[in-house]
Automatic annotation (TrEMBL), chain A:
Residues 140-156 have a biased composition (Basic and acidic residues). Transmembrane segments: none annotated. Residues 46-119 form the Large ribosomal subunit protein eL14 domain. Belongs to the eukaryotic ribosomal protein eL14 family. The lineage of its organism: Eukaryota, Metazoa, Chordata, Craniata, Vertebrata. The keyword Ribosomal protein applies. PANTHER family: 60S RIBOSOMAL PROTEIN L14, LARGE RIBOSOMAL SUBUNIT PROTEIN EL14. Keywords: Ribonucleoprotein, Ribosomal protein. It comes from the Eukaryota. Residues 158-169 have a biased composition (Low complexity). This is Large ribosomal subunit protein eL14. SUPFAM superfamilies: Translation proteins SH3-like domain.
TrEMBL record, chain B:
The gene is Rpl6. This is 60S ribosomal protein L6. Coiled coil: none annotated. It is found in: Cytoplasm, Cytosol; Endoplasmic reticulum. GO terms for molecular function: RNA binding; structural constituent of ribosome. The lineage of its organism: Eukaryota, Metazoa, Chordata, Craniata, Vertebrata.
Length: 169, 293
């Protein structure tokens, strides 16, 4: 049922507080509510932090409990947590949310246009498939359908990439 | 004469014996004259000590009138030299003017006073107004412009018939209103004035540094014109002269001149033309205080 546990070396994401948005490693547990926490590569000094503001990630580092910052840093860099984190969907969602909030009026217009174009392409393909399936019988269509679905997906993906690029701009 | 003056007044006496000496001694003349000229340049007069001995602090021996006599002020009445302004002022303004008068057997003209006597005197005098400071007329007010609004900024108009339209800012006019243009071919907004307060400044900017805006586009150019000359015809009073606004040729020419320059710059930015064509609107989940413009 539970997959991520509070343990020494667990990398946690701080959700609120002064260090909101940063990653830390749990170095030691102080009591039921607090942990000794350290984030040498993310700019968080070694300090006590309540569990409530931490959200556990999938990453675990290997170091003994109460290890000093140097050890934590070595373990962090060995595992390359920063890059691994940036590759997770979690981090990407956060980034996308930030970008969306920073969008200017012009950017919003560009995104709207990109979305519109993408939806049009998708609809076009869908209509094509529907027409095909309604015209011919269902049996000879089954072989063609997955191909066309792939085509539509590819078109979708290219449009999505365009939209993301435009949003980034 | 020289000896009389010496004990009385030494200071001017310094000058005078000097003068007399030059008069007497001929070989010493060039030196003396030089010295005299030098003295004249340096000192005008050496002032006499107070002719009013002090009896006690603040109290002099002689009265004002006695002092007047003692200082010989009756001999020393000066007037300031007449300046050019005073010379000009001597020309008195015209008091009357002759105006032509129509009608038969009326004699062609009348002599009319320019400045007439008041036709009404109030029974009570108007009380003197208290001094106030810092109350300037509108033309002297300080005009401010938000830092986010610079020439070339795309603005969103919020009021007026063009509300919601995105428009290019050109410059701030003398009254503080913003001169703005669509451009006309893009969103049907002509060269127009907009109020700073009723406008959202976006962060999108068009490069207008090379665009020359004609200098005759001022507030007077844009001011609304109203003609009112009712000839007291009861039947047709509601038919005012300017019912329909007509676009003058000058406006069209100015619009073309400015827009052609701006359109060239707009074409350089991809999708900007479509952006200016679109209108701004809010929908569900869109909160202006959370939007970044």
């Amino acid at each position: 049922v539970f997959k991520r546990f509070v343990e020494i070396g667990r990398v946690a994401f701080i959700s609120f507080g002064p260090h909101a948005g940063k990653l830390v490693a749990i170095v030691d547990v102080i009591d039921q509510n607090r942990a000794l926490v350290d984030g040498p590569c993310s700019g968080v000094r070694r300090q006590a932090m309540p569990f409530k503001c931490m959200q556990l990630t999938d990453f675990v580092l290997k170091f003994p409990h109460s290890a000093r910052q140097k050890c934590v840093r070595l373990a962090w860099e060995k595992e390359n947590i920063n890059e691994k984190w940036a590759a997770t969907r979690w981090a990407k969602k956060i980034e996308a949310r930030e970008k969306k909030a920073k969008m200017t009026d012009f950017d919003r217009y560009k995104v709207m246009k990109a979305k519109k174009m993408r939806n049009r392409i998708i609809k076009h393909e869908m209509k094509k498939l529907q027409r095909m399936s309604s015209k011919k019988g269902k049996k000879p269509e089954k072989s063609e359908k997955p191909e066309k679905a792939e085509k539509a997906e590819k078109v979708q993906k290219s449009a999505k990439v365009q939209k993301a690029q435009k949003a980034q701009k | 004469a020289a000896s009389e003056k010496k004990p009385g007044e030494k200071a001017p006496g310094e000058k005078k014996p000097g003068k007399k000496k030059t008069g007497e001694n001929k070989p010493a003349e060039p030196k003396g004259s030089q010295r005299e000229v030098g003295e004249k340049k340096k000192k005008v007069k050496k002032h006499h000590a107070s002719r009013n001995p002090v009896l006690a602090r603040g109290i002099g021996r002689y009265s004002r009138s006695a002092m007047y006599a003692r200082k010989a002020l009756y001999k020393r009445k000066y007037t300031a030299p007449e300046t050019k302004i005073e010379k000009k002022k001597k020309e008195k303004p015209r008091a009357t003017i002759t105006k032509p008068v129509g009608g038969d057997k009326n004699g062609g003209s009348r002599v009319v006073k320019i400045r007439k006597m008041p036709r009404y005197y109030p029974t009570e005098d108007v009380p003197r107004k208290l001094l106030s400071h810092g109350k300037k007329p509108f033309c002297q007010h300080k005009r401010r412009l938000r830092a986010s609004i610079t020439p070339g900024t795309v603005l969103i108009l919020l009021t007026g018939r063009h509300r919601g339209k995105r428009v290019v800012f050109l410059k701030q006019l003398a009254t503080g209103l913003l001169l703005v243009t669509g451009p006309l071919v893009i969103n049907r907004v002509p060269l127009r004035r907009a109020h700073q307060k009723f406008v959202i400044a976006t962060s999108t900017k068009v490069d207008i540094s090379g665009v020359k805006i004609p200098k005759h586009l001022t507030d007077a150019y844009f001011k609304k014109k109203r003609l009112r000359k009712p000839k007291h015809q009861e039947g047709e009073i509601f038919d005012t002269e300017k019912e329909k606004y007509e676009i003058t040729e000058q406006r069209k020419a100015d619009q073309k001149a400015v827009d052609s320059q701006i359109l060239a710059q707009i074409k350089k930015v991809p999708q900007l033309r479509g952006y200016l064509r679109s209108t701004f609107c809010l929908s569900n989940g869109v909160y202006p205080h959370k939007l970044v413009f």
